[in-house]
Design goal:
The complex is a heterodimer of chains A (about 190) and B (about 475). Chain A has about 190 residues and is mainly alpha-helical. Chain A contains six helices and no strands. The chains are: A mainly alpha (about 190), B alpha+beta (about 475). Chain A: This is MFS transporter. Chain A: Keywords: Cell membrane, Membrane, Transmembrane, Transmembrane helix, Transport.
């Protein structure tokens, strides 16, 4: 149950992030000034990601993957609300750096969760299925978003993506919550015995 | 559980505020003209789909106190068509041809019609426009408001060819304005940058479409004035004329080529040539212009190719209507950090060689200044408009400049442009007003001695300043 929820939340996250990334360039084109600024925006993203991986790795061992993923979802939900209202390139840079850190949280934690949850013998098949579902969600999202941008505005997709992150956050929170309940009842049972 | 509720509560607040800000910025359309240096949020854009709509827009603005601006194709580059927080009236859909009299050779059109609309209508009748720009993409209202001139050398500027027009005043009345009726307003509104009200429809004099033979020769700049006086102005068969002077480093402001349009002997063959030409495939000139933006060798290559191409054109025939619809697409320039702006300087015909020498020495020190083209035309003395630029018979030099859009880029251009205007004024010249507000107030007053009178009349006629624009607000 919990692993399925994990896949569900990850699928929603992938849907939301795939909604933004291909179309995100449209926003940069409105705000940004040149190809070199595109380069900087994505370069800063990758650089902050790189720098934050080691720290995030340690954190996930200490406070748990689920909590980090929950933090990622909720932080993304909030950050995305800023995208439609940015007007200056430096604001895009700051958002990109924040997204770099958050992106690193997601990537690292996704992998550590899989590493901890998946049985090593069946790892190939399980991770394959995991990628199938998450990528499937992403593909649908990209296609649908194309139409959404046509009918709505570029701003609208950021709001929709933000809401999706909230949903994934709620799924993860319920997951954490039910796991804790389970742990407590198991502890109780052990104590009873 | 309370943590979730707290998050949702904060999130909803953030969502609401973000959406509010987003809607606010979206509801205010951002407008920029062809210069792309002044993007600003206007209050709204109102489409002029008829006289009643226009009257309503003016009446409503008088009630709410909103400022109004008038826009056509927005090729004026100094915000002459808009202003922050003002209502911008988009005239493009107000474009019907109201009356056409082939015998009297007059046409009455709504001011949002373009020269192209007129050409398509009158070409089958063997008629042509008397004075317009070299390109036909502009609206009649916009052209009237900047009092254009073009390749024609036998009429002066557009004002010469305007019979009358109707004006929707700042008070919402409609006046007939001509040299007879409300004659005092006529010279203020033509070349008046839309500051006296909305020009509704315009009656223009037309002329016969003719067949011209093109003649191209290259020469040194020092020979141009005397060539022009003798071979162009002095030869009644030459009806139109244009020239270019090199901006390529190897021949900078020395080499020129000129093109004369000479009344052809075989006018009976007009029908062979009078299909209106459409925009051609522009890949090659676009590519060469592109190269010349980035490098000196590109500029040399572009100049040599232009010269050769124009040379090959010598001896071919073109109708008047086709001369007045030259290509524009190849100049389209897309860059988000840079833009291309125009300047136009008028200098007396006799002063030309000395002027070019001074201009050259002023520009030789400006290595960063990216000058892409200078086209030269001739405009006869005209003092009909209050803001008349042709104080005597003058050459008009149109400069195409590639510059950065940033504040730094604007500052850099300003310094060079003010210097060039000083050189122009030293030679009793003047400059054209539809461009970015680079010139200083002092330069404006020197070039246009009647500018004070113009602004006074504006204030007297439109005391609430209902109609405004950047040009007015910067210089008033």
């Amino acid at each position: 149950m919990t692993y399925q929820r994990f896949i569900l939340s990850q699928s929603i996250i992938f849907m939301a992030s795939s909604m933004i990334f291909p179309f995100y360039i449209l926003l940069l084109r409105n705000v940004g000034d040149s190809y070199s600024q595109f380069g900087w925006a994505y370069g800063l993203f990758a650089l902050t990601s790189a720098l934050s991986y080691p720290l995030i790795g340690k954190l996930s061992d200490r406070i748990g993957d689920q909590n980090l993923l929950l933090f990622y979802s909720l932080a993304m939900a909030v950050i995305l609300l800023l995208f439609p209202i940015v007007t200056e390139v430096w604001q895009v840079y700051i958002l990109q750096m924040t997204m770099g850190v958050l992106g690193a949280v997601q990537k690292n934690t996704e992998k550590t969760t899989l590493a901890r949850k998946v049985e090593k013998v069946k790892a190939g098949g399980t991770i394959g299925r995991y990628h199938f579902w998450t990528s499937f969600g992403a593909a649908i999202a990209i296609i649908v978003t194309g139409y959404l941008v046509d009918f709505l505005t570029i701003g609208a997709i950021f709001y929709i993506a933000s809401l999706l992150y909230v949903v994934s956050g709620i799924v993860l929170w319920k997951n954490n919550h039910s796991e804790k309940v389970k742990q407590i009842s198991e502890q109780k049972r052990t104590a009873d015995i | 559980m309370w943590k979730v509720l707290l998050f949702l509560f904060i999130y909803c607040g953030l969502f609401g505020s973000s959406f509010y800000v987003y809607e606010q910025t979206r509801s205010q359309p951002v407008v920029a003209d062809a210069g792309r240096l002044l993007p600003v949020a206007v209050k709204s854009i109102e489409k002029a789909d008829g006289e009643e709509t226009l009257k309503r827009i003016v009446e409503k603005a008088n009630e709410t106190g909103d400022k109004l601006t008038i826009a056509g194709m927005q090729h004026s580059q100094g915000g002459q068509t808009y202003y922050p927080e003002a209502v911008m009236i988009d005239m493009k859909s107000y474009n019907k041809i109201i009356k056409f009299d082939p015998v009297e050779k007059t046409i009455t059109v709504q001011s949002g019609a373009t020269w192209d609309d007129i050409q398509r209508h009158i070409n089958p009748y063997g008629l042509a426009v008397k004075v317009m720009q070299s390109q036909n993409i502009f609206t009649i209202g916009g052209s009237l408001s900047v009092n254009v001139h073009g390749r024609d050398i036998r009429n002066d500027s557009l004002i010469d060819t305007i019979e009358s027009f109707r004006l929707l005043t700042p008070r919402g009345e409609i006046l007939n304005v001509s040299r007879q009726e409300h004659a005092d307003l006529f010279p203020y509104i033509v070349g008046g940058y839309g500051l006296f009200g909305v020009v509704l429809d315009v009656t223009l004099h037309l002329t016969d479409d003719e067949l011209y033979e093109k003649k191209t020769i290259t020469m040194n700049y020092s020979e141009y004035s005397s060539y022009f006086e003798k071979e162009v102005k002095g030869n009644p068969a030459v009806k139109m004329h244009l020239a270019r002077i090199s901006v390529a480093p190897e021949t900078f402001l020395r080499e020129m080529y000129v093109m004369d349009y000479i009344y052809a002997d075989n006018q009976n063959e007009l029908s062979k040539y009078n299909d209106l030409k459409e925009e051609r495939i522009v890949a090659l000139p676009k590519f060469l212009l592109g190269l010349s933006r980035y490098s000196d060798w590109g500029k040399n290559l572009f100049w040599d190719t232009q010269k050769k191409y124009m040379g090959n054109d010598s001896g071919t025939y073109e109708t008047r209507n086709n001369v007045m619809r030259s290509d524009t697409n190849f100049m389209a320039y897309e860059s988000s950090i840079r833009t291309e702006v125009l300047q136009e300087y008028f200098v007396p015909v006799d002063d030309f060689p000395d002027y070019i020498d001074d201009l050259r020495s002023a520009l030789e020190k400006e290595e960063e200044f990216n000058l892409l083209n200078i086209t030269i035309r001739y405009v006869e003395k005209s003092d009909q408009a209050v803001l008349s630029y042709a104080k005597e018979d003058m050459f008009a030099l149109v400069l195409l400049i590639n510059q950065e859009k940033s504040g730094k880029g604007i500052k850099r251009s300003e310094a060079v442009i003010q210097k060039m205007i000083d050189v122009t004024l030293d030679h009793d010249g003047s400059y054209y007003l539809p461009y970015y507000s680079y010139p200083s107030k002092e330069q404006l007053t020197e070039a246009y001695p009647r500018i004070g009178e113009f602004f006074e009349k504006k204030k007297e006629y439109d005391p609430d300043e209902r109609f405004t624009n950047f040009f007015y607000e910067v210089y008033k």
